[in-house]
Amino acid sequence: MGAQRVKKVFLLIEDDPNDALLVKREFGRNGSAVVLQVVSDGIEGVRYLEGKNEYYNRRRYPLPDVILLDLKLPRFSGFDFLEWLQQKSPGSLRVIPVVVLSGTDDPAAVKRAYALGANLYLVKPSRWEELGEMLQSINRLWTGQAETPVIAEREKSL
Questions:
Q1: Can you give the C-alpha Rg of the chain in angstroms?
Q2: pLDDT confidence of residue 151
Q3: pTM for the whole structure
Q4: Is the sign of the CA dihedral 145, 73, 50, 86 positive or negative?
Q5: Which domains does the chain have, with CATH numbers?
């Protein structure tokens, strides 16, 4: 088993404050091994990953181990973000796993997300309780079972 940090950093890109609050709540339960960073759209997600504007401080805004991405975002959609990540971002960022959390199960959207590099596509359940259970599963998977790549820039910030 590879070396693991005590805490995993998740970047949530979500414009709905209620969904963001639920993710914070679920990831904060039971002494979760997650540091959750939240931005409200794809442009802020790009700025966060590039370390621009207020995100320059990598101790305060460390590079994520996992990105949780909503697809329906203002200004710069989740698809735009995935395209940027796979085609225009610095190469070291392209290996960060992306979990799409979408409100749609449209086959064309699923196919497009995977074609643009998503590692997992999950449809948000309509009931809060079910969404909470899904988030707990994501938390367990990515903090206790799945290995994530080490990015040189992240190592420097720890």
A1: 15
A2: 83
A3: 0.90
A4: positive
A5: 8-148 (3.40.50.2300)
